[in-house]
Amino acid sequence: MTRLERRYRAMLRFYPAGYRDAHGDELLDVLLETAEPGRTLPAARECAGLVAGGVQARVRANTRTNPWWDGLHLGLTAIMVAQAAAFLPYTGSVPIWTALSLAALLAVLRGHHLIALPLVALTGVKAFTISDGQQFFELTLLPVYPDLLTDQPLFRSTTPFAVSATYVLVAVGLIALASRRAGHVRSGWWLALVPALAWMGPEWMDRDLGYPLSLSRLILEAALLGAGVWAGYLARDPRWALGGALYLVAVSTEMAQHLSDLTGQHLGYWGLLGFMTFAAAAVPYRQRRHALD
Amino acid sequence: MFSDMPRGTDEVSEPMYFVLTALLDGPLHGHAIMKVVTGLSGGRVKPSVGTLYGILERLSDRGVIVVDREEVVNGRGRRYFRISDTGRALLEAEARRMMEAASLVMNRKFA
């Protein structure tokens, strides 16, 4: 294998595994046949084409299923990442509940909705009781202080209603998905978002505010919604908008509990998520420039 | 006929137009399509391999082209693409549209 072939093979990793297995060699054949003799580095325009083509193939591969059910699964996944992220910094104090929350997320990522459902119910009850200052299943010393990633006690800046509302939303969604018996599978990379979302991040808001938001969370959510807008644009598909809208419902439930405490930064954050969700919903229905766009 | 098509336009993008034109004379594989497209356009349209296969996959998804056959050359699979009846009709409609648009200018210029 030449150096050029090895490098083009590495570039082909931008394509989904299924496409790579089926057509990777075919693309490689054309890439090598069109390369100038003696070339060892891939041409820049070919690299750009492979990156764009690979991302488009990934987007296309994600649009084979029903967009509404898959959008529901996407939205539930995003909310469950946030729920697991809420427990993660407190793993030393509530290890069982962090583990159960991550297990529920993993089950949903693998499409096992009926397995996830009792795990969500258990962690939901525990989350509600902690936020309400009560006990459930095991004695938990309240407030629960973090070990890492944040300096805020568990559920300090939320209300029992907001906590339970998101768990009820997830449980209802899981029942709906389970009733279809169609397993939706998502990448394990979603698990990597849990610590990223849990991180309080660089100083942005006054931590003594009733409802402080982290800059890292804002950037992560905006980046994910931005990717959703782009995917919706490419595929003319509403699933990313639906996923974003469900996540926005969860965020808005939380924000609505703190209406009197909201600052301009909060409103900017809320407005940005709302605008990006709207954009994701609008772009699939944009005017076609060409018949086959 | 084109269930997933024109909403506001029936134009075909230039790279797709040349790809479909390249297939009018019979099935071709990716590398051959690239060479014919470059030749037909006088070197003006020269898609990268990633872009070309993105176009081929999209045309295939819409039923405008179909895979005619697959061959193995040097141990690697190679698909030959063929234009479908739908694709031929779409291409002819686009050619007619461009011809009518061009005649608006050419008839006035040489009248």
**Gap between N and C termini of chain A:** 37 Å
Chain pair forming the biggest interface: A-B, 31 and 37 residues
Average the pLDDT over all residues of chain B and give the rounded result.
88
Order of helices and strands of chain A: HHHHHHHHHHH
Work out the strand percent of chain B.
15-25%
* Tally of individual helices of chain B: 4
Q: What count of domains describes the coordinates of chain A?
A: 2
Rounded to the nearest angstrom, the distance between the terminal CA atoms of chain B is 38 Å
Number of strands of chain B: 3
Going across the biggest sheet of chain B, name each strand in turn: 1-3-2
Beta-strand content estimate of chain A? under 5%
pLDDT < 50 runs, ≥5 residues of chain A: none
Number of strands of chain A: 0
Rg of chain B computed from alpha carbons, rounded to a whole number of angstroms: 16 Å
Assign the structural class of chain A, choosing from mainly alpha, mainly beta, alpha/beta, alpha+beta, or little secondary structure.
mainly alpha
Outline type of chain B: elongated
From the structure provided, what is the oligomeric state, counting identical versus distinct chains? heterodimer
* Spans of at least 5 consecutive residues with low confidence of chain B: 1-8
**Global geometry of chain A:** elongated
Radius of gyration of chain A: 22 Å
Helix content of chain A: 55-70%
Describe the structure.
Chain A contains 11 helices and no strands. Chain A is mainly α and 293 residues long. Chain A has 2 domains: 58 residues, no CATH class; 226 residues, no CATH class. The model of chain A has no long low-confidence stretch (mean pLDDT 92). Chain B has a 3-stranded antiparallel beta sheet. The N and C termini of chain B lie far apart (38 Å). The radius of gyration of chain B is 16 Å and the shape is elongated. In chain B, strand 2 and strand 3 form a beta hairpin. The chains are: A mainly alpha (293), B alpha+beta (111). Chains A and B meet through helix 2 and helix 3 of A and helix 2, helix 3 and strand 3 of B.
